[in-house]
Specification:
The protein has about 170 residues and is of the alpha+beta class. It is about 45% helix and about 30% strand. It has one domain. The chain is built from four helices and seven strands. The strands form two sheets. Strands 1-2-3-4 form a four-stranded antiparallel sheet. A three-stranded antiparallel sheet has the order 5-6-7.
Length: about 170
């Protein structure tokens, strides 16, 4: 089995609530312009709408940049046989939730669950929840991962291969 490293990031389309908010801000600015045409203060409404929308888009990209679910399946290195989840929350710089990092060995994975709302299923994104043998609790919850069923199957396949190689070594 060849070494395999893959990182999954949340999908931009997974932030549909924020995209809807961006659209709502623009519609509100258009509505104000429609009902009060020619007012001199309308340019400030448009400037505020553009600034708010730009900040929301930056938030989407910042969240996407600071979250990663990584599958490491290297049969030659025991420390590289894991699923890791890393998240940095720049909006909470003084909280203990500022940076979160969890690693689960592929041989310790109990189950992988995919949860989707109707809208997430429409956009082909979902939440991947991974529980390990150490706690049997949901340790990793990666939100808005694109094609979550394929990602789950890929992690399960590599976990199964690693577990089979561990049991075959123990038999020797």
């Amino acid at each position: 089995m060849e070494p395999f490293y893959k990182t999954y990031k949340p999908a931009k389309r997974g932030f549909f609530k924020i995209w809807f908010l961006i659209l709502l801000v623009l519609v509100a600015a258009c509505a104000v312009n429609y009902f009060k045409p020619g007012e001199p203060w309308l340019k400030w409404v448009w400037i505020a709408a553009v600034i708010i929308d730009a900040l929301l888009v930056l938030y989407i990209y910042a969240k996407r940049w600071t979250i990663s679910l990584t599958l490491k399946a290297n049969p030659n290195k025991a420390e590289d046989q894991e699923v890791s989840y890393e998240e940095c929350n720049p909006l909470r710089p003084f909280s203990s939730d500022f940076r979160k990092s969890i690693e689960i060995s592929l041989s310790n994975i109990l189950h992988i669950e995919v949860k989707q709302t109707a809208i997430q299923a429409l956009f082909m994104v979902g939440d991947i929840i991974i529980a390990s043998g150490g706690t049997a609790l949901e340790e990793i919850k990666a939100r808005n991962i694109p094609n979550p069923l394929e990602v789950r199957d890929e992690i399960q396949n590599y976990a199964k291969k690693i577990q089979e190689s561990v049991t075959s070594r123990q038999k020797l």
